[in-house]
Structures are given as C-alpha cells and as structure tokens.
Amino acid sequence: MIAKVLKLGTKAAWWATKRTARGYRTETNIALGIIGVAVAANEAYKAKQRATAMCGKIVVVMGGSRGLGLEIARQFGLGGAHLVLVARNEDELRSALGKLHAEGAIPNGAAAHIVVGDVSRQEDCEHAIASATKRFGRVDVLVNCAAIMQVAPFEDMTTEAFESAMKVNFFGALYATQAVLPQMLSRGSGSIVNIASVGGKIAVPHMLPYVASKFALVGFSEGLHAELRHKGIRVTTVCPGLMRTGAESGVKFAGNAEKEYAWFKFGAEAPLVSINARAAARKIFAATVAGKAEITITPQAWLGARAVGLAPNFSQQFAAAVNHLGLPAANGNRETTTGAEIEARQ
What we know:
The chain is an alpha/beta fold. Helix content is about 60%, strand content about 15%. The chain is built from eleven helices and twelve strands. Strands 3-2-1-4-6-7-11 form a seven-stranded parallel beta sheet, with helices on both faces. Strands 5-9-12 form a three-stranded mixed beta sheet. Strands 8-10 form a two-stranded parallel sheet. α2 (about 65-80) packs across α8 (about 275-290) and α9 crosses α10 (about 310-325). The longest helix is centred in the first third of the chain and has 51 residues, at about 1-50.
C-alpha cells in the first residue's frame, strides 16, 4: 500500500513538474517574444531616425562635382539635406546638379547651391563657406572630399607633385575646416567629414605624394576629433580602400605612364578588392549620421591597415616586394599624362 501511494505521489509530482516546466517555457517564450518585438521596434525607430537625421541640414561637399563626392552629395540629398557643391569646374558642377535632380536627390531648385572654387586656395574655401552660409543661414555638415593623385616611382616625381597633393588633399580640408568651425562652435553642433584613404594608413609605393597628404589628413582629422568631441562637433575620418569611381581618367601618371596606368586601373576596377562609389557613399552617410570617429571601407583595407599596425616590419617588406616584383621601374620621365589621355592613345 505504501509502495502504491509512493508510486502515485511520484507520478503526481512528475506531472506537476512537467506542467510547471511547460508553464515556465510558455512564460519564457512570451517574455522572449516581447523582448524581440521591443528590439525590432527600437531598431525600426532608430532606422527611421537615421533616415531623417539629415532632413533640412545644410551640407557642403568640397569636391562634389563627380566621383565619390557626387555620390556623397546624392546620399545626403536623398536624406533630405540641402546641398552645396564646391568644385573648380562650373560646367561639371551644373552637370552634377542635373544628375542629382534626375535622381530625385534635389527635390526643388532652392535646395541646392553651387560654388566654383579651388580648395587649394584658402580664400576660395572661405568664400565657399560664406556663400553657403549666406544662402542657407548656416552649415551643418562639411564634407572634405576634394583630392588629386599622381602615380609614378619616387625618382620620377617632382617636388611640385608633393606640393600640389598637400595643397589639395590636406590644406584644402584644413582651410575649409577653419572657415566653418567658428559657426559650429558658436552653435555647439556640427559634423566635419574628412575623406582620407587607406593610403593614409598604408604607405602604397608609387603614390607617395598622395600617401603623404593622406597621412597628414588622417592625423589632423583624428586629432581634431579628440579636441572637438566634447564641444558638440563630430569629426569623422573616412579611409576608403580601392573604389570604382572612374577617377583613374583624371589621375596623372609619370615614369612608364602606360604601365603605371595599367596596374592602377586594374586595382581600381577589380570587383573582388574594390567597392563601387555609391556603396561607399552609403557607408559614409551612415557613419556621419551615427557620429562615428572613423571608418575604413572594404574588408581588405581594414585588414591591411590592421596588419600595418600589428606587423609594421613585415608589412613594409611585403610592400617592398610588391614594388620590386610587380610595379614598373623608374625611367627618368617626369612628364605627366592623365589616364584619359592614355586611354585615347590605346
């Protein structure tokens, strides 16, 4: 009898435990479901905030008439920002406006403004910011994207190649930042986006003027972020890897120009190691909205930059091997020709 009671008690306890476990699992599932819905709703809210974060903002894009600069302008325009494009060529600026209008990135004529100017000239940068401020009342976001590049061995480079690269790639960003910073400081808000390069992290052979200027820009931008972060101004350093922008047509080549152009174009157009400009621009837009300090675009660029930091000696030996085995030798030719001119001859 006792054994029977114990057996029945054990069975009842087992069923009670099972029901309790079932109830616990049900409650757990309900709780997890509620958490999942809350997380999804929060992410949707954040996505909506990101999508509208630039609506009505005044965005100045230095070097915004073509290539990556134009794609960045497009992303901000689609986000509802008022655009100010700055470049040297008025025809290219007007063409850029036409493209943006056609894609719906400029909803009406009052939402865009162009300024003809050379970023290597401090007075032109000051004029661009003043013109944007006069038109729209303020500047919320400054994107420094203007850049030039020359490709050749160091022996085939002139001093002027280095000076020109520094004037456009580094001092252009410096001048524009100096011009816009006072109004941002007075408001306690604003964003400065410096388009540097993985060439500002990795010393790429045959591109030394560009590399030197981008190393300078990365250092300036990172230091500026540290100084302005707690004053309400976000500074984002962008280091893209290889991009498919079509910019090789405007790049200058010296030395064995045809061979220099061939390897450069191959790297810029290779789908497995490069990213198209529009995809890069979307990442830059998202980083600006998020107020990120720095982004490196493309996994290959990210890994390369980390490798240099972790193993600098090996990285430099590898670069030296690539230079020796894969790149054209110097031939004493310091005359430059553009990629477009080389294409026309082929």
